[in-house]
From TrEMBL:
Listed GO MF terms: glycosyltransferase activity
Annotated protein name in UniProt: Glycosyl transferase family 1 domain-containing protein
Annotated Glycosyl transferase family domain residues: 173-338
Alphabetized Pfam families for the sequence: Glyco_transf_4, Glycos_transf_1
């Protein structure tokens, strides 16, 4: 079995990246695994005997997508592939669908969420998703959405949560000490509107503003970067809590932040999964999160975290106060979260689910024929 992967993640071009290491393991499952990604200059990179990555080149997004199509088409003409897997349900999926039809091979879509589900992307997703031979998604929540919103048959869907190496994470605990004498809430992620980090800042304002007894006792650490950063700084200033908010920017290694925080916040309006929540749980942090992604599946309200309605500032403030004031609750929720993630599929089980989905794409295509 040979797989052709259409991806947007250019870190595959770095042989030392975590993605490159993961993809090499994918290649060990099959006869060959080829990845095509957008970039500036056409080049071929050999990652292992079975795994190759191609930078398709292109000066802008439109030309990059055109070149992904051209590069993939050229590869399909040169050798036989069994499955095309596309990293999203939008433009890559459309390219994958055209190629799968032309070369009569199975199409698998990887569904990580619906963060950009609007406009032309929505039209493409509505058209392409039901036409995929197999679909791999990261959560039961997404599976339910695919069935209810797109009419996808359940047997076409494989749920494969993103694997996290728990041993590696736990071994890095307390590798750096921060000077802190306050209760620290931590959030990690891209600073974009859908993450709704402004909700955290506004809740902090209710906790720590003015004469509040918590004004000198609580901080919010924001680790990440993105187009919303300046707006979030402005919100913190307007809310009068700029001294309680610390922006650390993007960091390659965030283990030290997890290790030195007291609780973790995720307040996204939408998530496919929520990898940062799993990472926080491996570091023993109690979690407050909105009802998105793995909430209800891994993080259950009152058992392994506190789950609040999306966009509800009052509930967020209430949950933060509970976490600050109840050490036993923090311990119980942190232990519950760690117990929940220990039951997630192992690396070997996750890889087996990937292979199962590829085989499904092949067999269902044969059945259709």
């Amino acid at each position: 079995m040979k797989i052709l992967n259409l991806s947007l993640d250019k870190s595959i071009l770095d042989k030392n990246s975590s993605l490159a290491r993961r993809v090499i393991e994918y290649g060990n499952l099959v006869g060959g695994y080829i990845v095509v990604v957008p970039g500036r200059d056409y080049r071929e990179i050999r990652l292992s005997e079975k795994v190759f990555a191609y930078d398709s080149g292109g000066s802008n997004k439109i030309f990059q997508l055109i070149n992904i199509y051209r590069t993939a088409k050229k590869l399909l003409k040169q050798e036989k592939f069994d499955v095309i897997t596309a990293q999203d349900q939008y433009y890559l999926a459309l390219i994958g669908w055209f190629l799968a039809r032309r070369f009569k091979i199975g199409l698998e879509l990887q569904i990580h969420g619906f963060e950009k589900y609007s406009g032309l992307r929505k039209i493409i997703a509505k058209f392409i998703t039901p036409r995929a031979v197999a679909i791999r998604c990261v959560s039961q929540r997404l599976k339910r959405q695919l069935i209810s919103d797109f009419g996808i048959r359940e047997d076409k869907i494989t749920v494969a949560p993103i694997f996290v190496n728990l041993k590696n994470k736990i071994s890095n605990l307390k590798s750096e000490k921060f000077k802190k004498d306050k209760f620290v809430f931590l959030t990690v992620g891209r600073l974009v509107p859908i993450k709704n980090i402004s909700l955290q800042i506004k809740a902090m304002a209710k906790l720590a503003k003015g004469d509040s007894p918590l004004a000198e006792e609580v901080e919010l650490w924001i680790v990440g970067d993105g187009p919303e950063k300046e707006n979030l700084i402005r919100v913190a200033d307007e809310q009068g809590v700029k001294d309680n908010i610390k922006f650390f920017g993007r960091r390659e290694n965030v283990d030290d932040f997890y290790a030195n925080a007291d609780a973790f916040l995720l307040t996204s309006n939408s998530e496919g999964w929520g990898m940062v929540v799993v990472e926080a749980a491996t570091h023993g942090l109690p979690i407050i999160m909105t009802d998105v992604g793995l909430a209800g599946e891994i993080i259950r309200n009152g058992e392994s975290g506190i789950v609040i309605p999306v966009g509800n500032q009052a509930k967020l403030k209430e949950a933060m106060i509970r976490i600050i004031g109840d050490e036993d609750l923090r311990r119980r929720l942190a232990e519950g979260a760690q117990s929940a993630i220990e039951k997630m599929p192992s690396k070997e089980e996750t890889l087996a689910l990937y292979k199962k989905s590829w085989e499904k794409a092949m067999k269902m295509l044969e059945f259709r024929s």
